[in-house]
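Need a sequence for this fold. Nothing fancy.
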């Protein structure tokens, strides 16, 4: 009888995994359990991944931590750390909602990009972001700068600014710093930045 129960559980687990793969896919799944990271590694990986997904994809993602069956006292230190990280990222405008999916995974709904700005404004970071080195913008490709300018103008219009000329450069820098913070270094970084800018523009269109 025990063997039959084990087989049943195995089939249920396989079905559950198949449903998760169909719902989220590889691009929307972060499996921390598979690589057995330390707590520090898991936190760094998870924050970078969630920030990148927020600015390039949004929607819901799946974060798998494992339930910690092999951990001391049967409690996963990685899972506990990720719970605290998700709460912190919610305060910082990255995460909108978290729900426990299984004992070892979470469904995370990412916040809109505008939430990053609102969180920064609450912390008084807007002025600091706007005074970052303008040379960072001149290094961008013309297409990227054009998209960034469009985004800056949309943001200023949303704020009710009619004479945008004195503010557009600072707003471009502010938007750039918010989006670039979620995109890792690499050869495709500027391509991803353009995707993030387009995503932010679509958010304004959907309002």
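Here you go.
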């Amino acid at each position: 009888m025990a063997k039959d129960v084990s087989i049943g559980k195995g089939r249920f687990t396989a079905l559950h995994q198949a449903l998760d793969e169909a719902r989220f896919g590889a691009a929307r799944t972060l499996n921390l359990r598979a690589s057995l990271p330390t707590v520090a590694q898991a936190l760094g990986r998870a924050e970078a991944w969630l920030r990148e997904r927020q600015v390039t994809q949004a929607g819901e993602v799946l974060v798998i931590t494992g339930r910690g069956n092999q951990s001391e006292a049967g409690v996963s230190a990685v899972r506990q750390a990720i719970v605290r990280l998700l709460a912190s990222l919610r305060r910082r405008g990255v995460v909108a909602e978290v729900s426990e999916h299984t004992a070892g995974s979470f469904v995370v709904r990412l916040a809109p990009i505008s939430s990053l700005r609102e969180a920064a404004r609450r912390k008084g970071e807007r002025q600091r972001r706007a005074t970052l080195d303008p040379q960072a913008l001149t290094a961008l490709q013309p297409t990227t700068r054009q998209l960034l300018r469009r985004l800056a103008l949309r943001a200023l219009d949303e704020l009710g600014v009619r004479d945008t000329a004195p503010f557009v450069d600072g707003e471009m820098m502010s938007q750039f710093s918010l989006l670039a913070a979620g995109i890792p270094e690499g050869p495709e970084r500027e391509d991803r930045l353009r995707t993030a800018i387009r995503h932010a523009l679509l958010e304004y269109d959907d309002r």
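For context: Residues 126-131 have pLDDT under 50 and may be disordered.
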